[in-house]
Amino acid sequence: MRHRSSVPDEREPKKGRVSAFEKSLKSYADNKSNVVINPAVGVSFDSHADAYDFCNLYSWEVAFGIRWNDSTNNAEESVMVQEIVCSCEASRYVQLMVPSGKPELSNTAPVSTDCKARIQLRKSDDNGWMQYAHFGDAITFDTTYRSKLYDMPFALFVGVNNHYQSVILGGVLMQHETVESFKWVFREFVTLMGGKAPSTILTGQCNVMEVAIHEVLPDTTHKWCKVHVLSKENEFLGPICSKKSGFKDDFQKITDSMLTVREFESAWQHLLDKYNLHGNAFLSQIYDSRHKWAKPYFKGKFCAKQTSMQRNECANHMFKGYVPLNRSINMFVRHYNKLQSDLDSKERFEESRSGKRSRVMRKGVPVEEHAAKICTRTMFEKFDEISFQSGSYVVDEKERGKTYLARHIRSDCQECWSQVEFEVTIRAEDGAVVCECGLREHIGMPCCHAVKVMIHLGMLEIPAGNIVKRWTMDARDNLLADMIEHENDKAAESSESYRQSKLFIHAFEFVKFCSRSVLTFEVGLAGLVRLGQERL
């Protein structure tokens, strides 16, 4: 736990101000919690001594000791941050700061030590939880944003919604980037998000983070950010780019455009041979780690079109624009909330834009018209790009109704290592058009080879097996599995979690209905206002 002070070290007494101790006693009397003294988000103190005494009372109640730890001074040597930690703590996981002024914290996480004693300061965000429920299949986690005032990284969990926009799922302020701290962060994040781990997580090139993910998220695919892996490209390959014409373009083709492992391996060896770079240490290093970052090695692993953390870095860029690096924690959170509000506003704009049915068709074929009906506008535009690329291929039939070859019409002009033929099969169980390139499984959309076969066969609609709901306008139009489970579990009717799930299901349906038009919105809102007034 941290107590942040300002100059002077003690604030003047104020008539009517209720101390943290008094608030805890009143809360205990009203709520009958398990402990009398309960540190929580929003607690403020008049002095360091008050903060220490409060935490000490809590530590006695739950049977552990505390001690002063590190502090941070400003330029005038005034103490700005003072840590209070478990007395038997060996290494801190994550530290949350409690400002001396009243904070407005959200998306906060527990603070724990590595002994059994634990101080938890946590507040979950329902919007982040709902976003994760729909779009938490592939996420990024980045620790590059760092507060200058506290010298601590603020790590962001970021997903991608059905409009291909960044959605902030949560954030955590960390003091130390160790295996244990990352294990704790990932474990707590999954718990806050309902217990379901993501299918894929994209992170920076960090060994301690890799160990933590392997232990805490064993079934999650861990992918390194390509941008991080190649971050020293200019430093180590700059001289080669300036001396060897064409090297930079060839290198980017390999890192950006390869679809299959065979293509990647062939292209890499050709690059080394062409420019005589077999002994280059940097190229050898990134080649040895190719299974952790190169797209072809993640065939069949859904990544939501994310090959690097550019989407997360975009969110970080916006974050820096909202929150200067030297801001105090309460101002930090206030601006964070403003960023979240603006992201929500942009999402609502895209929802409205997608609701307008007029779409520009490039090819005017039935599958394109079907994509226009079911996909959000942004994802339809991406499908249209894929459809346009399919024009570079022709289809040869291998086995009627089962197997086809999509062949590039200018195969003679392609690179010697470029794969120009792709086998496409029609899956018997659901009619899905599946290509050996694996791009559909990777991004959740059919590749240009599969689309070409669909057009060749005159399909009127995209097969259901080729549609990933998270990219459609109906991405949120479903109840969560765990809610339905609660709904059907009559034995749990007496539990609070059951009642919450029951209410949420009906509230979810009510919101869907009231969002259909201005009239239903106004009627529904008026009903809620009346209900609130009656309750009061």
Any overview of this molecule?
The structure is a single chain. With 536 residues, this protein is an alpha+beta fold. It has 5 domains: 2-102, no CATH class; 126-225 and 307-346, Ribonuclease H-like superfamily/Ribonuclease H (Nucleotidyltransferase, domain 5, 2-Layer Sandwich); 238-292, no CATH class; 366-471, no CATH class; 481-535, no CATH class. The protein contains 19 helices and 16 strands. It has helices at residues 20-31, 48-62, 126-135, 179-192, 207-216, 226-229, 233-243, 247-257, 261-275, 281-288, 310-322, 329-355, 366-374, 377-389, 439-443, 448-456, 481-488, 496-514, 518-535, and strands spanning 2-4, 66-73, 79-86, 97-99, 111-112, 118-119, 138-142, 146-147, 152-160, 166-173, 200-203, 221-224, 393-399, 403-408, 421-426, 433-435. The strands form 4 sheets. Strands 7, 8, 9, 10, 11 and 12 form a 6-stranded mixed beta sheet that branches. Strands 2-3-1-4 form a 4-stranded mixed beta sheet, with helices on one face. It has a 4-stranded antiparallel beta sheet with strand order 13-14-15-16, with helices on one face. The radius of gyration is 27 Å and the shape is globular. The model is unreliable at 1-7, 90-119 and 121-125 (pLDDT under 50).
